[in-house]
Specification:
The protein has 494 residues and is mostly helical. The chain is built from 21 helices and two strands. It has a two-stranded antiparallel sheet with strand order 1-2. The longest helix is centred in the middle third of the chain and has 32 residues. The radius of gyration is 22 Å and the shape is globular.
Length: 494
């Protein structure tokens, strides 16, 4: 029965391999890609409901019992993210059908999207540190190809920085894994948690935990986000939307998993550092979001702000704050994809990304304008849209623990988010239109429909929050009670 746990990773890998041999058949590639993502979404929802009925599920490859073999684990946290990943990828693929261009489609765009998703899903579901590293690398290699696909100067410039940073962080990741294995003699998450609890998180293990924090901060854009705005604003909109929605979230997931399951014994050191980094990230992201006049840069810096906000919940580490971070994580994946697609659509219609060179677009494209307005309100946490619930729960957790500085920074950053995006909205959509009827470019349905789907998604996630509340509560409960995870994997093993 648990063999289905491998499918969220195996399906995109096999699909990607098949699509390599269908290079000349673009239309077939499109619909196979879309069908694969819908299939993974349905499968993820099924597994998510099985978890509620049976508890955490796991699959031991080759019959090797933990902690010796390769292990896949499905809990509510990982499967929520796998489900969201597949839905967002399917919608971004719909957008790509009308925007990515035949040249990129013939350069293995669809296979590498599937390899990217395989790495992302594998990272969410793996049960040991070394395979987390392997899945990270699968994801990153695919992203290296996607960021440079097309060979434009801006892309290649961003790709050099992006590849260099990630190669360096991967080296640090291997060093951290080697030190941890040398110290406790295992890499299985549940067994690691058990061993660290037995020996105590002394100075050596705390130092190793900070090395992991450095690695995942580079991956997620926590404080060390200098590479992110340029890298995420260079590729085409469909690829930028996938990057903004998925890549930083894998780093965030790894941080949550490692610092709730392994290194939670010295929170005055590790979690305080995470809190400080989250606060500085929100400040830096806020300043960047209001400093630039390029819509792609503004959206990219809003990704940075969200990373800081989500990790406030980890720094606080109460059940309520964790629930808020998980809600906000799912919300942010949807809304960031929407924002990148909207930004790409605006640039396609106007031929520029500079907000001071646009005006009155709402008169020509009213639905596009109101979708941008909805995304703005959702990110700022205006009820009843999806960002509101996460912000309220994280704020409640901060009040419970007396973390008033983080609370203040979190909600001040929301004001900066609102200001930065309203500035884009007022400049681009309000005022006198700069596009005459003769020059008006028709808005393709293939560009508009994916944006509408994501806009509806953020509204439904806010209004119908109770539909995922059971999953979110279970995910947060597993994070704050590591024994649930350990018992599910190791049982009564000592």
């Amino acid at each position: 029965m648990n063999n289905i746990l491998v499918l969220p990773m195996v399906i995109p890998v096999l699909t990607g391999i098949i699509l390599v041999f269908l290079r000349s058949f673009v239309r077939i590639q499109r619909w196979i890609s879309f069908a694969a993502m819908i299939g993974i979404a349905g499968l993820s929802l099924y597994i998510l409901n099985q978890i509620q009925a049976e508890g955490i599920l796991h699959l031991n490859f080759g019959g090797w019992e933990p902690p010796y073999g390769i292990l896949f684990v499905a809990d509510s946290f990982s499967m929520l993210l796998v489900l969201t990943t597949s839905i967002i990828t399917a919608i971004c693929l719909l957008y790509a059908f009308s925007s990515i261009g035949k040249e990129r489609e013939n350069m293995f765009f669809y296979p590498f999207v599937h390899f990217l998703v395989a790495g992302v899903n594998g990272s969410f579901m793996t049960g040991d540190l070394f395979n987390l590293f392997v899945c990270f690398e699968v994801m990153l290699v695919a992203s290296y190809v996607l960021i440079s696909l097309g060979g434009k100067k801006l892309q290649l410039k961003a790709a050099i920085k992006y590849v260099a940073i990630n190669v360096l962080s991967s080296w640090f990741f291997l060093v951290a894994i080697a030190y941890l294995y040398g110290t406790v003699g295992t890499l299985n998450f549940a067994h690691l948690s058990q061993r660290i609890a037995e020996v105590g998180q002394g100075p050596l293990l705390t130092t190793i935990s900070i090395l992991f924090l450095l690695v995942f901060s580079l991956k997620a854009g926590l404080l060390l986000y200098f590479w992110l705005p340029g890298s995420y604003s260079a590729p085409p909109p469909a690829i930028a939307a996938l990057f903004g929605a998925l890549l930083t979230k894998v780093g965030i997931y790894a941080m949550f998993r490692v610092f709730t399951l392994l290194f939670y014994h010295e929170p005055t050191i590790t979690h305080t550092i995470i809190g400080v980094m989250a606060g500085i990230t929100m400040i830096g992201g806020s300043l960047g979001a209001i400093a630039y006049k390029d819509i792609r840069q503004v959206v990219s810096y809003n990704v940075v702000i969200a990373v800081g906000f989500i990790l406030v919940g980890l720094a606080i580490s109460t059940q309520t704050a964790m629930e808020g971070s998980i809600y906000y994580l799912v919300h942010d994946m949807i809304v960031k994809a929407l924002l990148f697609l909207l930004a790409g659509t605006i640039i396609a219609l106007t031929g520029t990304g500079k907000i001071d060179k646009m005006s009155g677009l709402i008169r020509n494209y009213p639905l596009l304008g109101w979708l941008f307005f909805i995304a703005t309100l959702s990110l700022a946490g205006i009820p009843p849209l999806s960002g509101f619930i996460g912000k309220i729960l994280v704020g409640e957790g901060a009040i419970e623990t007396g973390s008033y500085v983080l609370l203040a920074l979190a909600f001040i950053s929301s004001i900066f988010v609102l200001y930065s995006l309203l500035r884009v909205f007022m400049n681009c959509f309000w005022g006198e239109t700069i596009i005459s009827e003769e020059d008006e470019v028709p808005l393709k349905r293939g560009l508009l429909i994916p944006c509408v789907l994501l806009g509806v998604g953020t509204a439904l996630l806010g209004v119908g929050a109770e539909s995922i509340s059971t999953y979110v509560n279970d995910a947060a409960n597993t994070l704050v009670n590591p024994n649930i995870y350990i018992q599910a994997i190791l049982g009564d093993q000592k």
